[in-house]
Specification:
It is built from three helices and no strands. It is mainly alpha-helical. It has one domain. The chain is elongated. The mean pLDDT is 87. This is Ribbon-helix-helix domain-containing protein. InterPro entries: Arc_rbn_hlx_hlx, Predicted_DNA_bind_prot_RHH.
Length: 81
């Protein structure tokens, strides 16, 4: 594991210390968890943005609709078997 040194505003550092104390975990573990969650949210936001962008693309929507029609057809065949 690498070591990372950073500066934080005094009020944020105080909030960090208080939360870490309340949760009975070291400050670095709280920072690690918070950063992990934040990075996951950024990734989700990128995915959502790409899906929104795709939903505005007529060619992508046509392919999706075609795929859904094929999927529906497969479901109907499966139900009759």
């Amino acid at each position: 594991m690498a070591t990372f040194t950073s500066s934080l505003p005094d009020d944020l550092l105080e909030k960090l210390a208080n939360e870490a104390k309340n949760l009975h975990i070291p400050k670095n573990k709280l920072i690690e968890k918070a950063l992990t969650m934040y990075l996951q949210e950024l990734k989700k936001a990128r995915y959502a943005k790409s899906f929104r962008r795709a939903s505005e693309d007529k060619d992508v929507m046509a392919m999706a609709e075609e795929g859904m029609a094929d999927y529906f057809e497969m479901l109907q065949k499966h139900d009759t078997e």
